[in-house]
Specification:
single chain, 474 residues, 19 helices, seven-stranded parallel β-sheet, three-stranded parallel β-sheet
Length: 474
């Protein structure tokens, strides 16, 4: 605290900060003062409300500050948050924030640990304390725009708090059908739930089915929606931001391919089939290996990179004979282009009947197209457009071996060009500039105007409940 503030109470310093047009500092100090219980809550709420107005006024005409919020930064949901952050990076000051969940790990997801984006998070050890913890994080990190990566209730609560504290414009992003991960058939309408049960559930089991159904039912709670592909757009509306990559970083070249192969001891004339992602059995890793082995070719190598297979999958791969398999562990996000440069072919075998496959555009598909790999995949709804462009060779489980054999015997030299064209035209950071610009320049009324500070400190800090006034009225 500077000398001019010595001898003053927290509230007095907060007031002086407000008078000095330092609303960020004032909000933090008024909140700290309320935590100490030195003054009535309604008095703090009055000043917090005024500080929010001053903050919004001070941000007019300034370069936007954007926070991308991820409900679990310790495993692969963080990948989508990274893609959104990169989409904003040329246009705004961007940070990533969110949660660490016990059970998923207590460190950042390995691919993003070396990211240039600042990551701030809370460790959620008690669901009952989540709203209080989230409020403390929100107070410390003001943003003009907050983009929520995935409709999970942790993100929904972060969104409400950013509306309350900073008056932020909040956007919800949907890049998967989250209901599939909790084995639910449909979302729950929060207003109907309140009519039937009197209130939303207690803050417990936030990762489970009920809260996920409610969170998906609240996709429209905020100022806009983005989705990763047309199949999700048909279901949730909104604008499309695919799993974009910076075009300048994802540039294939013969020199890059040769350097990558030298690094990993793979000869230049080997035909490399690459899996780059988190290797799990349900992603078709072992099934792909068996298809390749059935071709009985000595010039093929299967490279599995991006993570360690679990014990069962590793054992299954080891039992497949007649195919060279190279396992490359976790890789930093920034190394993705060099790892993908190892490959000639990418194969995506999904369970076409599974709900998740009907709505998922795999990030590893974008990476493969970016580096000009030949992609073989089933024609699921999210991939239809790319198949129609000729960027992907459509296959079924019945004909994939035949199509692969034909490709290895007589590859189409134009396939590389079709893959790159699909990437450059619609899957780069640069391609989504109009969508990002539209969000950043939107000056329409914000849903945040529906949330006021009255009664919130007692509700969130003492009662450990959701903010008052949510779900936000339409």
């Amino acid at each position: 605290m500077s000398n001019k503030f010595q001898g003053l109470t927290l509230r007095e310093v907060a007031y002086q900060s407000l008078r000095s047009e330092l609303p960020e500092k004032a909000v933090a100090l008024y909140f700290l003062d309320s935590l100490r219980g030195c003054n009535p809550a309604d008095c703090s709420e009055f000043w917090l409300s005024l500080a929010r107005k001053r903050w919004l006024r001070s941000r007019r005409g300034q370069r936007k500050k954007v926070g991308v919020c991820c409900w679990s930064l310790s495993h692969n949901p963080a990948g989508r948050a990274m893609a959104l952050a990169e989409a904003y990076a040329p246009h705004a000051d961007v940070e990533i924030l969110g949660c660490m969940m016990p059970g998923y790990g207590d460190e950042l997801w390995p691919p993003i640990r070396s990211s240039s984006f600042n990551c701030s998070y809370i460790i959620v050890e008690s669901d009952a304390e989540f709203a209080r913890q989230a409020l403390e994080l929100v107070i410390q990190h003001p943003y003009d725009v907050v983009h929520l990566s995935k409709p999970r209730i942790h993100n929904v609560i972060f969104g409400w708090l950013y509306q309350l504290v900073w008056g932020a414009r909040v956007i919800m992003d949907v890049d998967d059908e989250e209901l599939a991960f909790v084995e639910a058939d449909a979302p729950l309408n929060p207003r109907e739930f309140i009519r039937n049960h009197g209130a939303l559930p207690e803050l417990k089991d936030l990762r489970q089915k009920l809260w996920t159904q409610l969170a998906v039912g609240m996709v429209d709670q905020f100022d806009g929606v983005t989705v990763s592909n047309p199949a999700l757009q048909k279901r949730y509306g909104g604008q499309i931001i695919p799993h974009v990559r910076p075009e300048s970083r994802f540039r294939p070249s013969l020199l890059r391919s040769k350097a990558s192969r030298r690094e990993f001891g793979i000869s230049e004339d080997t035909k490399v089939v690459l899996f780059f992602g988190t290797p799990r059995k349900h992603k078709g890793v072992a099934e792909t290996a068996r298809v390749l082995a059935s071709l009985q070719r000595s010039d093929i190598c299967y490279v599995v990179a991006g993570g360690e297979p679990d014990v069962e999958l590793k054992r299954e791969l080891a039992n497949i004979s007649g195919l060279e398999i190279i396992l490359i562990g976790e890789q930093p996000y920034e190394r993705a282009p060099d790892i993908i440069a190892l490959g000639d072919v990418c194969i995506l075998l999904q369970d076409e009947t599974a709900q998740v496959s009907q709505f998922q555009l795999p990030a590893k598909l974008i990476d493969a197209l970016a580096m000009g790999l030949t992609v073989f995949a089933q024609k699921t709804p999210p991939l239809e457009g790319l198949v129609n462009q000729g960027a992907i060779i459509p296959v079924t489980r019945e004909n994939i071996a035949t199509k692969l054999q034909a490709h290895f015997n007589d590859p189409d030299p134009c396939q590389y060009l079709r893959a790159r064209e699909a990437f450059v035209s619609g899957l780069t950071v640069e391609a989504v500039t109009p969508v990002v610009d539209g969000i950043l320049k939107d000056d329409s009324p914000r849903r945040a105007e529906h949330l006021t500070w009255q009664g919130q400190l007692e509700q969130i800090l003492k009662k450990r409940k959701l903010p008052l006034g949510v779900p936000v009225p339409r």
